[in-house]
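Sorry to interrupt, but I need a hand with the structure work. Please put the record directly below this note.
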Amino acid sequence: MSNKKYIPTIGIEIHTQLATKSKMFCGCDNDSRNSEPNTNVCPVCLAYPGTLPTINARAVDLAIKLGQGLNAKIAEHTSFDRKNYFYPDSPKGYQITQMDEPIIQAGHIEILVGGEFKKIGIHHAHLEEDAGKLTHPEGATYSLVDYNRAGTPLVEIVSEPDMHTPEEARRYLQEIYNI
């Protein structure tokens, strides 16, 4: 039996919605909180044949500002990819995301833990679109799909696995929230 001590290694992915008026790749309203299901959708959101996405410039601007707050390198060239998967709340059968060439590259933030500053690396952050929403009525044998969220602009922040305690993870999340 070994008496070696295990050290937790923590990396965190954060998905956050960007505060834009329209969705990531179309002009539909991005705020569906008070909307009837499936009313903030269009042929682009629903992936009708022949439709083409147009990027939301405000989402790009917000991502660049986030990258600056993360002390990160901002890519001069970036691209979007299709991540294929089937979920009933994804009408396209794929997600438009930045898998290979993210807009925000390596960076870092500093957190204060136990009176000392610690640097937490940011691997990258990338833009992507959200899926829709499934609801499961109580007692029903079916689910309902609401595509109003489909296409909502998100940024996914991926840390390096530089945290080793719950306190470090908590402070990291607080600092990202502040940024």
